[in-house]
Design goal:
- This protein is α/β, with parallel strands linked by helices and 265 residues long.
- It has 9 helices and 14 strands.
- A 7-stranded mixed beta sheet has the order 6-5-4-3-2-1-14. Strands 7-8-9-10-11-12-13 form a 7-stranded mixed beta sheet.
- A hairpin with an 8-residue loop joins strand 8 and strand 9.
- Helix 8 crosses helix 9.
């Protein structure tokens, strides 16, 4: 399997996960040209993508979906609530409803030789979710855009080979910054985003000796810095009850502007 972050951040998100024969994207919240460039770096084109897994209907996750869907012909997977939310503002253009597949929390779905598991998350959208992808005992996951976590999430994200996890903001930067108080409260709420510290605590709980690579993702442009996110997460892992220390695995920041290294596992 291969894992690559094409873009991850508050301005747009698109993650590639695939095997030799099946290729999927989690979200398409960036311009089609940038998605194509990312796929080209992996030796692929949009026509190679079998499916797009949509986490929720915010524009930084579906902004490029309409164009990409029409160009690639890929199937689209989303919860019923997300499916409704995607079309409420009418910004996706003409999309074939026959390409949309409805998924449910806690269920598994087969796409080619990949198995997809859908996990409920808490965010201020209609029916948000997160996905893990597995094949022949190998497993990767992406989990962002959640304000809190529970045992169901911890269980679903244990024993992964590769993980991209939210490290959205530093709480002190957010409170001292220019965002209106109402927006600050929304981000800090249980339906907002995981802070660096909260993301680090969740990561500490799901890490296992199986982990091969971790990406910190969905960093806020205004309320975070990559070095701060990394150091905060390192502190939480090294102080937490988990079985690994921060030195036991490689960890990178997934950029909003640059394609990440491709992890093969």
């Amino acid at each position: 399997m291969r894992f690559c972050s094409i873009a991850s951040g508050s301005s747009g998100n698109c993650i590639y996960i695939g095997s030799e024969s099946t290729h999927i994207l989690i979200d398409t919240g960036i311009a089609g040209k940038k998605i194509e460039e990312g796929l080209n770096s992996l030796g692929l084109t949009s026509l190679d993508i079998d499916a797009v897994l949509v986490t929720h209907e915010h524009s930084d996750h579906i902004g490029g979906l309409g164009v990409f869907s029409r160009k690639s012909g890929a199937d689209i997977y989303a919860t019923e609530g997300t499916n409704k939310g995607m079309f409420l503002k009418g910004k996706l253009g003409d999309m074939s409803k026959s390409k949309i597949n409805i998924v449910e929390y806690g269920h598994d779905y087969n796409i080619g030789d990949l198995q997809i598991h859908v996990t409920k998350v808490s965010h201020d959208t209609l029916e948000p979710c997160a996905y893990t992808v597995s094949q022949n005992g190998k497993k990767a996951g992406v989990i962002t855009d959640l304000g809190t976590y529970d045992e169901e999430i911890i269980e679903a994200y244990r024993n992964l080979d590769v993980l991209l996890i939210e490290s959205n903001h530093d709480e002190r930067m957010l409170r001292a910054g220019r965002y209106p108080y109402q927006l600050q409260n929304r981000i800090l709420s249980d339906k907002g985003h995981l802070s660096n510290a909260a993301g680090g605590r969740l990561l500490d709980l799901v890490l296992s000796e199986r982990i091969k690579h971790v990406f910190l993702g969905h960093l806020s442009k205004d309320n975070n810095y990559p070095a701060l996110a990394r150091q905060t997460v390192v502190t939480e892992i090294d102080a937490g009850p988990g079985i690994l220390s921060s030195k036991d695995f490689p960890m990178d920041i997934a950029s909003r502007d640059e394609i990440s290294k491709c992890i093969e596992f």
